[in-house]
Amino acid sequence: MKIIACYSNKGGVGKTATSVNLAYACAQAGMRVLLCDLDPQGASGFYLRVKPSKKLTEARFFEDVKRFTKSIRASDFKNLDVLPANMTYRDFDVFLSRMRNKRSRLKKALKSVGGDYDVIVLDCPPNFSTLSENIFKAADTIVVPVIPSTLSERTFDQLVGFFDEHKLPKKKLRAFFSMVQRRKKLHVETIAAMRKQYRKRFMSTSIPFSADIERMGLYRAPVVTYASRSVAGLAYRELFKELKKGLDSKR
Amino acid sequence: MSDADNDLVVFPGAFDLDVALQADSNLTLQAELHQQKKPFVILDDHDQSLRNSGCLLIESGNRLQLLQPDQVWVSQAGKGYGKFVNELPDGPVRDSLAGFPPLRALTEIGRGIIETGSLAALDELQKTVVRGSFVVLRSDAGQVSLASIQRLRGYDRAFETVKGSLRSMAGPHHGLETVFGALFPNVEQYQAKPTIHFGKLEPASEAATEIIRTFIAVARKNEAGVIADIDTEFLHDYRVSLRRVRSVLSLFKGVFSDQETAELKRIFSDLMSPTGRLRDLDVYLLERESYFKLVPPSLHAGLGKMFDQFETERAREQKKLSRRFRSASYDQSMKELAAQFDDPTRLEFGQNADLGAYKYACSLIWKRYRKVCKLARSIDPETPDEAVHELRIHCKKLRYLMEFFAQLFDAKAFKTIIKPLKRLQDNLGAFNDCSVQQDALLAFAVQQSSSSGQVDANLGLSVGGLIAILNQRQQAERERVVSNFQHFDSPDIRELFRILFQTPGD
Question: Of A5, B61, B393, B448, most Cβ neighbours within 10 A?
Answer without folding.
Answer: A5
